[in-house]
Amino acid sequence: MCLAIPMRIVEITGFNARCEAKGIERTVSLFLMQHESLTPGDIVMVHVGYAIQRMTEDEARSAWELYDEMLAAEAGLDEAGHDEGDIDKDGRKERAAADHA
Hints:
Strand order of the largest sheet: 3-2-1-4-5
Low-confidence stretches: 92-101
Distance between the termini: 44 Å
CATH architecture of the domain at 5-74: Roll
Number of strands: 5
Strand content: 25-35%
């Protein structure tokens, strides 16, 4: 599975841009978008170090909401950020010891 990440352009130098997402900065190649007029503040979709598409704020926000849901599910957290607990052999959730106190 391939995954592209929305990142905001911070600075452009030639065909490279310094981009930021969630506090992480990366150098991204703009070579594939060389015919686009990009400026700092624009949001681009980044795949394997290359900007491949310009995105709107709404598109980027929707993508990050989906990525956050996927990361939370993988970490075993529910929507509120709480541990969902273990599943017993019958498929039921076991309650934490603190729930019985």
